[in-house]
Design a protein that fits this description.
The chain is of the alpha/beta class. The protein is 39% helix and 12% strand. It has an 8-stranded mixed sheet, with helices on both faces. A 7-stranded mixed sheet has the order 14-11-15-16-18-17-22, with helices on both faces. Strand 12 and strand 13 form a beta hairpin. Helix 18 runs antiparallel to helix 19 and helix 21 runs parallel beside helix 22. The longest helix is centred in the first third of the chain and has 24 residues.
């Protein structure tokens, strides 16, 4: 292919070149750095006149370029495109896979003929566009430079066109700074020291605890020096804390060599007779546990470190870490400058590409309510997932290709080149701190053993493991390299290794004397006794305070244009406290928040459309009706020094958002942190977080949370998707007083419940089945004096003044109470009484027994619910009531029949079912 053959196509591009050149002359900053350099080079060579790119002349002036002019422009354009091709696709030729001896073949996108060149062009001189010091150089020299930059042991992916500032900065740094500096001799010695520690620990564990699972890091042990030197640099740059989330692989290595967890504690956990002395409930396996420690060396600033515990749903911890980080940034009072606390996520390649929560979490990075200033992602790429190879794991080239959707830089590195790996780790930190964005490092290595140490990988990957068995350890490769460079001496190395091995042996010898677990759990409070959970907590608030707060949050700022319906609503709300009118659910919620904020408690609420509220009952954010960009949050304008109120409409995500709020609540127990599902059944999408963290986190890891879940629940004929918050699932998960499951029926109960969550010392998640139909139900109201005194009541008795004459006792929970009450009043029945179980778990048995004792002439007892028999509370409450009810009193179930779905999709059928339930209750 020659220049003339492509002349026609290049002529078509001439207008674009002229337009870009005019922009360059007028305002160069508008162009990317690549185009700026392109035109700078043209100016230096004095060819602007030659190719017809003159400020005063253009195609519009009727002046056309000659054939020779266009040919010159075409050549220069192709050179520029060749350079850009390597910047974009050079990573495809980078030798980042340590399991192959040769780099990948040249990809189609980098072939010379595809870029408009021939072999004979290699000796011709072309403009370098700033890539080389000289203005012109042979094409072969240009190619050598490009391959040295982009095709060695680092694959740079950053040219997406979505973030010009970041891309231009990275391009300049890679081509001008990165390879010139390299690691200092001291950094190389430190890298070797941590490689020693990393590999020798794994070897020691492998020989002392044969066949025990530990998820060895061997094959990617370069992770340890990468983390160490990155944290070293971070501490020098003012970073004070890092929060880490990671998969199993390498966890024990990170805990000991990075967070300074003692080897003795780790060895304890391998012993058969290990039972933790401090409370951990049922406990968890060692490679799931978290830890709090610090990284520090001599003459280095300490940096606090937290590894979050996580289950085998590996990527579920991603958003938990982001929430923990956000809370720490908030508590530091330095939220705007998030450089001091950084999140680090360590992924496995298979989980990263396979689990959807990764995308959900990345989507949070730039959102005002969830941003943490950028996350550093380190991928331990074993090139296998348990037994599954990449071609069966993903549809993309790289496991990190999700980053492209967000325009995030990805650096692919070879674990057998520790210098490059560490240097890239330092670059990733620099990018995060400078651009406040996520950065990915794809650490390509291998897995020395199977998925765990008792596994046989040759069953499924015989050839690959033949290669792996013949690999020399990375530590040995790097040690020999530094000895050749004269940076370390062999005798010195032998001394390092012997000293570290001796320390491991001493820790192992003494560990049996201290078979207890301390670390992060050493100050854990024991589980409170069941009865302590029912100690009344006075949560009433003085009337004058409630009135003053209502006046403040119902005040419309001057010049603010409020929606007419909302204006009417807030005037009615103000009358509720000033004129002692019935208080509805929305007002009680507002007053609960306001009183806590008044006392200095921060309140954070997030969920889909929660600012307004799915059912238009909250209105925590007002929008100016003439200037939509103006938002007003009434609860942030109560007084100076109040608690901070945050409310955020979340993206359409349940798992990542609930994980985020869980993590936030763990770090900020002094605040009221709430996640609201749009409908209760939306919790289905976050079941991993509910099962693995909220319900079991305290039992497994001693990790406490006061997170509150709002799950709108109730049968109003809205079909199977929007009726049930799946009460039965939470009751199935209940045990060891792990959480509070509440189905309140009055605004006052809701008010006291939210205030109780803050005012008592016990830290337990609170699951609230909030109503839909009761939000505006005329009977579901409270008086002001019910908010000024008292506390939350786990069980509510019947308002009937006299229990004498009652023959049937009905126990229920939730909104069906009001339908039962209406039916009783309509039929004028005084022989049926109701007891409401507002808190289903933990069940206040003493209170229930006391209420039951009031009724002496009962013939039977019913449990009544809206949900199908296999759902709702029946399966949980039946054995409890059998123990508590007077002996011989029959107990019957009234509700919908067993069903595969929570509710019918037919409104007419719903009404028939509901009528049938009410009729059964009142048929003696």
């Amino acid at each position: 292919m020659n220049v003339n053959q492509t002349l026609e196509g290049e002529t078509a591009n001439l207008a674009l070149l002229e337009s870009l050149y005019q922009q360059y002359q007028t305002n160069p900053a508008q162009l990317s750095l690549s185009w700026q350099r392109y035109f700078e080079a043209l100016d230096r060579q004095g060819v602007e006149a030659k190719i017809g790119l003159k400020p005063a002349l253009s195609v519009k002036d009727g002046i056309s370029a000659s054939k020779e002019d266009v040919s010159a422009a075409a050549v220069d354009s192709r050179i520029f495109q060749l350079i850009e091709a390597y910047r974009r696709n050079g990573h495809l030729m980078a030798h980042v896979n340590p399991l192959v001896s040769q780099p990948p073949e040249e990809p189609e996108s980098l072939r010379l003929d595809r870029l408009g060149f021939e072999e004979r062009d290699l000796k011709r001189f072309f403009p370098t566009f700033g890539l080389l010091p000289q203005g012109q150089a042979p094409l072969s020299s240009l190619l050598d430079a490009l391959r040295n930059l982009y095709c060695r042991h680092i694959g740079f992916e950053y040219k997406y066109g979505s973030n010009p500032d970041l891309e231009n900065w990275l391009q300049n740094y890679i081509e001008k700074e990165f390879f010139k500096t390299g690691l200092s001799p001291e950094q190389k010695r430190l890298t070797l020291e941590y490689l020693n520690r990393s590999e020798l620990l794994e070897t020691f564990l492998h020989t002392k605890y044969v066949g025990q699972k530990r998820f060895s890091l061997e094959g990617t042990e370069t992770l340890i020096p990468m983390l160490a030197l990155m944290l070293e640099s971070a501490s020098e740059e003012g970073v004070e804390e890092a929060v880490l989330g990671m998969a199993h692989r390498g966890r024990l290595n990170v805990l000991t060599n990075i967070l300074n967890k003692s080897f003795q504690l780790v060895f304890n956990e391998f012993e058969d007779n290990y039972i933790p002395e401090s409370f951990e409930g049922m406990g968890d396996v060692k490679y799931h546990k978290g830890f709090k420690g610090h990284y520090a060396r001599l003459n280095a600033k300490k940096i606090r470190l937290t590894v979050s515990p996580n289950p085998s749903h590996l990527e579920s911890v991603d958003s938990v870490v982001e929430g923990m980080t956000r809370a720490k940034q908030f508590l530091e009072k330095d939220e705007e400058d998030r450089k001091k606390v950084i999140p680090i996520l360590i992924h496995g390649d298979a989980a990263l590409s396979g689990q959807g929560v990764v995308y959900e979490t990345l989507q949070l990075a730039k959102l005002p309510g969830y941003a943490t200033g950028g996350t550093i992602h380190l991928v331990i790429n074993n090139q296998i997932g348990f037994t599954t190879i990449p071609r069966d794991l993903r549809s993309t080239v790289y496991c990190t290709d999700i980053a492209k959707a967000f325009g995030l830089p990805v650096f692919h590195v070879n674990a057998e080149d520790p210098d490059s790996c560490v240097q890239v780790a330092l670059l990733a930190l620099l990018v995060r701190q400078r651009f406040h964005c996520d950065v990915f490092i794809d650490l390509n290595g291998y897995r020395k053993y199977g998925h765990n140490e008792s596994d046989e990988p040759a069953f499924t990957q015989p050839i690959e493991y033949r290669v792996i068995r013949n690999k020399r350890p990375i530590r040995e490769i790097y040690r020999n390299r530094l000895i050749e460079q004269g940076i370390v001496q062999k005798g010195e190395m032998d001394e390092w290794e012997e000293r570290f091995k001796l320390g491991l042996q001493e820790a192992h010898a003494h560990q049996k004397e201290h078979l207890t677990s301390v670390g992060q759990n050493q100050d854990l409070m024991s589980i409170p006794s069941n009865q302590a959970l029912f100690d009344p907590i006075e949560t009433g608030v003085a009337k004058d305070v409630l009135v003053a707060l209502a006046e403040r949050f119902c005040a419309v700022p001057n010049g603010f244009h409020l929606h007419a319906k909302l204006d009417h609503l807030i005037k009615e709300r103000l009358k509720m406290v000033k004129e002692d009118k019935p208080i509805d659910w929305g007002m009680a919620e507002y007053l609960a928040y306001a009183t806590l904020l008044w006392e200095g408690t921060p309140v954070r609420l997030s969920g889909q459309d929660c600012c307004r509220g799915t059912f238009s009952h909250r209105h925590a954010m007002w929008i100016d009706q003439q200037r939509e960009e103006i938002e007003y949050y009434p609860l942030n304008h109560l007084k100076d020094g109040q608690g901070r109120f945050e409310v955020f409409n979340s993206p359409l995500s349940e798992m990542a958002i609930l994980g985020f709020e869980y993590g936030y609540s763990v770090v900020c127990p002094q605040g009221l942190t709430i996640w609201e599902a749009q409908f209760g059944d939306f919790g289905n999408g976050a079941q991993v977080i509910i099962d693995q963290y909220i319900a079991s986190g305290e039992q497994k890891w001693g990790q406490r949370s006061k997170l509150v879940l709002f799950l709108p629940h109730g049968y109003e004929g809205q079909g199977p998707e929007h009726s049930s918050g799946r009460l039965e699932r939470f009751l199935t998960l209940a045990g060891h007083d792990n959480m509070q499951i509440v189905n309140p029926t009055t605004p006052a109960q809701f008010f006291h419940l939210l205030r109780r969550q803050i005012h008592r010392d016990i830290e337990k998640p609170l699951i609230v089945f909030t109503p839909k139909g009761l939000l505006r139900h005329p009977a579901a109201t409270s008086r002001l004096d019910e908010l000024t005194q008292g506390s939350f009541q786990e069980i509510l008795g019947d308002p009937l003044p006299k229990p004498q004459g009652v023959r049937r006792l009905v126990l229920c929970s939730g909104r069906i109470y009001y339908d039962l009450l209406t039916k009783r009043e309509k039929d004028q029945r005084k022989d049926v009484a109701f007891i409401r179980l507002e808190q289903l778990y933990p069940l206040n048995a003493r209170r229930l027994i006391a209420l039951l004792s009031l009724y002496t002439g009962l013939q039977d007892c019913l449990w009544v619910q809206e949900e199908p028999q296999n759902m709702g509370a029946w399966s949980y409450i039946y054995p409890c009531l059998n123990e508590l009810l007077p002996r011989g009193l029959p107990l019957f179930y009234v509700g919908r029949e067993r069903s595969a779905t929570p509710a019918t999709g037919s409104h007419s059928r719903h009404e028939q079912e509901h009528t049938n339930i009410l009729q059964q209750v009142f048929q003696l």
